[in-house]
């Protein structure tokens, strides 16, 4: 199974997280418009990534006949539902410059929580999940 498109999307998401960190360091209220735009852009990539995983990756693992991978895929998919829900709520709350400017510390707090979980999940997929699929 070719996982290059998934890795590329992960790379794009990680770059967006880095951009959000850099913009936040420069001042959330001052960079509110750029931060909001980055959240919107990153959300598009994340939604596409989740959709492709749900429509193609996880079903392929279920059909693979490899019980270990099928189980792993099911576990990753279930875990991702909670992470995706948290991210979607975060993105809906912080996708407008005016909201960011009104509560920069609220954004910082939520971003630190939600984006850390997303970052760790991507690292786990890149380190454990994708290599397991490729070496099956």
UniProtKB/TrEMBL annotation:
Occurrences of domain Hemerythrin-like (ranges): 3-133
InterPro entries in alphabetical order: Hemerythrin-like
Organism this protein belongs to: Oxalicibacterium solurbis
Domain of life: Bacteria
Pfam family of the protein (one): Hemerythrin
Protein name in the entry: Hemerythrin-like domain-containing protein
